[in-house]
């Protein structure tokens, strides 16, 4: 009896039945997982925008960071204007200065009584407190009269087309200073992070690889530095140095490498007894070759995550130092100096503090989002 054939040929349904995936390199796999995390991609887009804003933006504005026009000081971005008899608009500042504004929102000039014919057409009365019979010049004027004694009501709200984000107490363009300030803050942070990364990688790598007494002595030095609050340590170093860009980089680069050194040391300790390191020793590779070509490249994941967390910390420290007056020296603009300049006019012109504070918040969120995304993308345990 002939046995029947129990196997039948199955026809293919095309690509739907194929089980395969396109091979990806390590960098491609990291990018694939990184871009599928929405918050990380959003943070990266914010960083790219801030870099363009800080690097390209100053070339697109006609004002420098130190250009002053005190006649147009403390002008906000959005103005409530009064219609003038000649068809233009009038904006009244908190100090009761009359600014002539064109129909399209351009600031024309400051009008002065007795010198400009247009200034004689209106009279400004400050806010009057009926209980104390005093004049309060910090509040918006409520009475504007023309030459015939008729009260002029507020006409409309228009955008300041001359200074898109307004001016500060010295008549400087806030948008231009924000661009230059973001550039200075990012430059300080990136340079400090690069120096800290180099020092931390070398220090932590040597300490972890050599081990023994060398590791004990080097880590005790790190512990001594860590016992002093890093903020106080940076302030003490900065006080001993002159004001300027280089001194703040030196101050930030002198202490912020301790966290990086600890991260690198921990990674090297976990990797130095692996088989590939023993193989490198067997073929006679030097300590420097093993450290730089085998151990450090395999520890780049935690190193990159630590750097992304270090950059916003350095920006915040620079802004704090500039805010208390020991950071970037005037007339250079940084986010901290802009916050410091805006504190005097916080109640009357809060927009001057809101703008640099908002940029600092964007930088903090962006780098933290990118750091979280890199941590998940570089972790092989989270690979799907």
Describe the structure.
By secondary structure, this protein is an alpha+beta fold. It folds into two domains: 78-159, no CATH class; 174-382, MetI-like fold (Orthogonal Bundle). Helices cover 51% and strands 10% of the residues. It has twelve helices and nine strands. The chain has helices spanning 26-35, 38-55, 174-210, 212-227, 230-240, 245-253, 257-271, 275-282, 287-298, 300-323, 335-342, 351-378; strands at residues 78-83, 89-92, 98-101, 107-111, 122-125, 127-129, 134-136, 143-146, 156-159. The chain has a five-stranded antiparallel sheet with strand order 4-3-2-1-9, with no helix packed on it. A two-stranded antiparallel ribbon has the order 5-8. A hairpin with a 5-residue loop joins strand 1 and strand 2 (89-92). Helix 3 (174-210) crosses helix 10. It is elongated, with a radius of gyration of 31 Å. Mean pLDDT is 79; it is low at 127-138.
Q: Which features does this protein show?
A:
elongated; 51% helix; alpha+beta; 2 domains; 10% strand; 12 helices; 384 residues; single chain; two-stranded antiparallel ribbon; MetI-like fold
Compact description:
51% of the residues lie in helices and 10% in strands. The protein contains 12 helices and 9 strands. A hairpin with a 4-residue loop joins strand 6 and strand 7 (134-136).
């Amino acid at each position: 009896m002939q046995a029947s054939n129990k196997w039948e040929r199955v026809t293919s349904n095309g690509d739907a039945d194929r089980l395969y995936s396109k091979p990806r390199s390590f960098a491609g796999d990291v990018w694939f997982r990184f871009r599928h995390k929405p918050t990380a991609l959003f943070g990266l887009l914010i960083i790219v925008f801030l870099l363009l804003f800080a690097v390209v933006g100053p070339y697109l504005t006609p004002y420098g960071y130190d250009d002053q026009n005190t006649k147009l000081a403390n002008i906000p971005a959005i103005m409530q204007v009064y219609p003038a008899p000649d068809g233009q608009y009038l904006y009244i500042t908190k100090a009761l200065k009359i600014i002539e504004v064109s129909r399209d929102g351009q600031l024309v000039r400051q009008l002065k009584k007795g010198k400009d014919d247009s200034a004689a057409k209106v009279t400004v009365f400050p806010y009057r407190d009926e209980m104390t019979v005093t004049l309060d010049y910090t509040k918006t004027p409520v009475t504007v009269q023309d030459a015939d004694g008729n009260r002029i009501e507020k006409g409309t709200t228009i955008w300041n087309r001359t200074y898109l984000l307004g001016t500060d107490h010295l008549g400087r363009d806030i948008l231009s200073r924000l661009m230059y300030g973001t550039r200075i803050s990012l430059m300080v942070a990136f340079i400090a992070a690069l120096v800290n990364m180099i020092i931390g990688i070398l220090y932590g790598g040597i300490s972890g690889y050599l081990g023994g007494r060398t590791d004990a002595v080097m880590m005790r030095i790190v512990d001594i530095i860590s016992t002093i609050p890093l903020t106080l340590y940076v302030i003490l170093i900065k006080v001993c140095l002159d004001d300027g860009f280089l001194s703040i980089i030196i101050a930030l680069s002198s202490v912020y490498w301790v966290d990086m050194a600890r991260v690198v040391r921990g990674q090297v300790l976990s990797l130095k007894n692996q088989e590939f390191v023993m193989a490198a020793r067997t073929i006679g590779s030097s300590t420097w070759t093993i450290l730089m070509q085998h151990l450090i490249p395999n520890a780049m994941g935690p190193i990159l995550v630590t750097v992304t967390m270090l950059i916003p910390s350095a920006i915040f420290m620079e802004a704090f130092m500039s805010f208390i007056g020991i950071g970037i020296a005037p007339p250079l603009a940084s986010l901290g100096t802009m916050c410091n300049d805006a504190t005097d006019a916080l109640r009357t012109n809060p927009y001057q503090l809101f703008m640099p504070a908002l940029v600092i918040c964007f930088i903090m969120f962006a780098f933290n989002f990118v750091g979280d995304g890199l941590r998940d993308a570089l972790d092989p345990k989270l690979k799907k």
